[in-house]
Write a structure and sequence with these properties.
Elements: E1 26-28, E2 34-36, H1 40-52, H2 56-70, H3 72-98
Antiparallel strand pairs: 1-2
Helix pairs in contact: 1-3, 2-3
């Protein structure tokens, strides 16, 4: 994956994430990696969260439109991020339910 910030001067990815962008604001991805807020991985994560907030019908339409423009491979990366975020939210929701806090963050299975 490529970082948007001075991409021609940076190593693409190290084992810990986008450590060459340490001078920028750091964000924590759902998989635990720390990256700068200019990295492609952060953009994918933000877009995945945005899509997960949409009603299912609109989400499917948005994914189909993105696939026509960006191609299947890039949309699959987005779907993978959505599935990871959804699974994490379900696990957190289950923990919350076990503790009797709220009703969880998402219900059912995410339909991509």
């Amino acid at each position: 994956m490529e970082c948007f910030y001075e991409h021609d001067k940076l190593d693409l990815w190290a084992a810990t994430g986008c450590n060459d962008c340490a001078r920028e604001k750091v964000a924590r991805l759902s998989d635990g990696r720390a990256v700068c807020t200019w990295c492609r991985a952060w953009a994918i994560e933000c877009e995945a969260r945005h899509l997960l907030a949409m009603p299912l019908r609109k989400r499917r339409e948005a994914l189909e439109a993105r696939e026509r423009v960006r191609g299947r491979e890039q949309v699959q990366a987005l779907k993978d991020a959505m599935a990871r975020i959804h699974a994490q939210r379900r696990a957190q929701g289950s923990d919350r339910q076990a503790l009797g806090i709220g009703s969880g963050s998402l219900c059912g299975v995410v339909c991509l």
